[in-house]
Amino acid sequence: MRCAICRYAYVIALTLSGAAFAQTQPAAETIIQVDARKTANYAIPRSIFGTFLEPIGNSTYNGLWAELLQNPSFEDNLWDVKQVADLVKDDPELNRASEMALPLPWEPLRYAQGSRYAPQWNDVANSYRSLLLMALPDKQTGIRQKVYLPVHRISHYVGSVYLKLVSGPARVEVSLRERNHPDHIFDSREIQLGAAGWRRYEFALEVPPHQLVPLEPSDFVVAASDETRVLIDQASLLPGDNIDGMDPEMIAMSQELKTPIVRFGGNFTSAYHWKDGIGPRDQRVSMLNTAWGIPEYNQFGTDEFLRFCQLIGAEPQIALNLGTGTPQEAADWVQYVNAHWADHAGGLLWELGNELWGDFQVGYPTRPRVAERTKSFSDAVRRVDPKARLIATGGDPDAFHDWNAAQLANPPHTFNYLSTHFVVTTNSLQALHPSPDLVAKATFALPIELERRLRSMHQQFQDARGSDVNTAFTEWLFWSAEDQFSPRYDNMGGAIGTAGFLNMLLRNADIVPISDMTGIIEFGGIWKKRGRVFGVPAYWVFRMYSNADATRLVETQSNGQRYDVDQGSTRLPKIADVPYLDVVAALNSSGSKLTLLCVNRHLTRDLETKIKLTGFRPTKAAAHSIFAGSIYEKNDETEPEHIHPQEVSWSVTSPELKYTFRHESVTVIELGR
User: Fold this and answer.
1) Which domain holds residue 663?
2) Distance between CA 501 and CA 443 in Å, rounded?
3) Which of 279, 450, 467, 576 is deepest in the core (most CB within 10 A)?
4) Tens of pLDDT, residues 232-251
5) CATH number of the domain residue 214 falls in
6) For range 392-411, the mean pLDDT
7) Cα–Cα dist 237/65, whole Å
8) Residue 178: CB partners within 8 Å, gap ≥ 6?
9) Residue 29: what pLDDT?
10) Regarding beta strands 18-19 and 141-147, do their DSSP bridges make them parallel or antiparallel, or are they unpaired?
């Protein structure tokens, strides 16, 4: 159970006066003073709990999008060289399949039958290629693809395929079979081919109970017999419970985040043409996502994104193409979305490009040209939607001054916000051979220095333009290519970083009213592996914060211990005065609830804490806390809720509480009166 017993022991140790966790070592008592009479002069905007969705990895395809097949249109050149190498490394048999002219990741039904397949470029139902299947005279011949069916929740699957008879009997079979055991058929359907020409055929397949174990793969098969020759194109296989083509479990978990905005953007933005992703899905062309070297099937386009936002109660925030795109194309997209969203009134958030300062960005403008390009797109958008709220590309907090100065040279009202991003490689430090403890402490300290940089950034805005521009933090992520001894998006260390970042946003929401965590799907959010959906620890932290009934900050002071970082992250190597216990307190709109959002950054010490309240006398308390046996522990498809919040509640008889915060933990305490 990977320390599950330890986690529950901590919960059991809670007493009615708070949380009396067993300590790992003695510590002086920390005092937190909260004065509920002294409130901030701004309400916390819900928009700081925005999230981010980009076609990268398995975020949309193989993730949110419920389609179970890859390369359903039988194309070539949909993956770059690295991605092809990874596919073949994971499944070496694909080498043999490619020698038979089968497109990745399709395989022959039986390798021993040899080459009975040929790509066709001049006769297609979709995109650029179809596949000719040539059945043997005495044996069934076919193609197959490994799929992970979510049999833990659904046994019914629906699909379709485009077929065109070339010669022979007009029969084709589709089926689900045991992986690498073609004679073990779970279910099959025979398709009788109609008149000459391409036609779309629908089917339904059922997996009998106990025939397939969850997390185990099966084979989807299209096969023919008796020397039938048939062209195959644009196949599809979906769970029967899909919601408009999307995964219902991912929809449900996204709804629980209560995120008010979802950003659709990223590096792919600079080469994405939105008209490729509208219209009948069967006619949309598959192509290479040049930013990430993976397929862009264009099945999840503008209408699907808007439907996703509608399903989870969020507003769309879309990044426009300032790389290969034109101002007119951007204006047309704005007009299209306004015509298809809500009351058609416009006024949505639109981002004028993504990370345009980077030479990795397709068609990036140079710094001397970015202002005029920003202005031309701004003018085009404002002509079709004067109420549009525009986010221009700004610099990152560690290198923003010159780039932002160029953007701020634009006339007033060209944009409403300048974006900033912080996707930090947590194991990249100035120190040579840093210890895991230094990596962790340096990572946990980053939000404290970011807070200072954001204030400096805002001062530049004030000096240049007065008060008409704020910051939109449209990407943030704790990243590490190595998942050993590094806090990163998918382990408990990343959850500690996430909570510290959210505390920073709460304290600075007056100047950073918009923020998008990377991402709602994958990275710090919801994952799907082998058909099983789960949230990483950062997902649970974000959910704790975004569901908190907290709208107005109140004054909070602490006498707790602090630490300094030297030779830390190469991005922000020196960070002074980092509190081990980071606490933000806020009232709800009626003043009936006080919420404390708390992060214990200490690597080994549980912090005994006295919480003194002024101006608020609670009668009840509840705490949600998340922690693990190690900051390197994760959730995965085998233990999807290994790390998730633990809850305890108790009665309160005094405005002074005692609570012990476990080391390396995140806790949200709700006090009611």
Assistant:
1) 4-44+555-672
2) 11
3) 450
4) 999 999 999 999 999 999 99
5) 2.60.120.260
6) 97
7) 11
8) 184, 186, 212, 218, 219
9) 87
10) unpaired
Helices (H) and strands (E) in the chain, counts: 11, 35
Residue 72 forms part of a structural domain: no
Strands 389-392 and 349-352: parallel
Instruction: Report DSSP state, residue 598.
Output: E
Contact 524, 539 (CB under 8 A): yes
Q: Give strand pairing partners of 421.
A: 475
Euclidean distance between CA atoms 41 and 20, whole angstroms: 35
Q: Which amino acid is at 214?
A: P
Does 572 share its domain with 662? Answer: yes
Q: Distance between CA atoms of 231 and 199, rounded to whole angstroms?
A: 11
The rounded distance, in Å, linking the Cα atoms of 182 and 175 is 10
Domain boundary among 184, 209, 239: 239
| C-alpha separations of 98 from 87, 88, 102, 220 in Å | 12, 10, 5, 18
Any domain includes 355 = yes
Residue 543 above 60 pLDDT? yes
Nearest to 167 by CA among 189, 142, 144, 137: 137
Among 410, 579, 402, 388, which Cα is nearest to 499's? 579
Tell how far CA 546 is from the center of its chain. Answer: 15
Number of structural domains in the chain: 3
> What is the residue whose two structure tokens read 């399709």?
106
> Under a CB-based contact definition with an 8 Å cutoff, are residues 477 and 420 in contact?
no
The answer to whether 469 and 416 are in contact (CB under 8 A) is yes
Q: Which amino acid is at 76?
A: D
Question: What tens digit of pLDDT does each residue of 140-176 get?
Answer: 999 999 999 999 999 999 999 999 999 999 999 999 9
- Give the Cα-Cα-Cα angle 389, 395, 397 (nearest 5 degrees): 110
pLDDT mean over 542-562: 97
Q: Are 270 and 321 in contact (CB under 8 A)?
A: yes
Which of 284, 317, 321 has its CA nearest to residue 301? 284
Q: Which residues, in sequence order, are CB contacts of 439 under 8 Å at separation 6+?
A: 426, 427, 429, 485, 486, 487
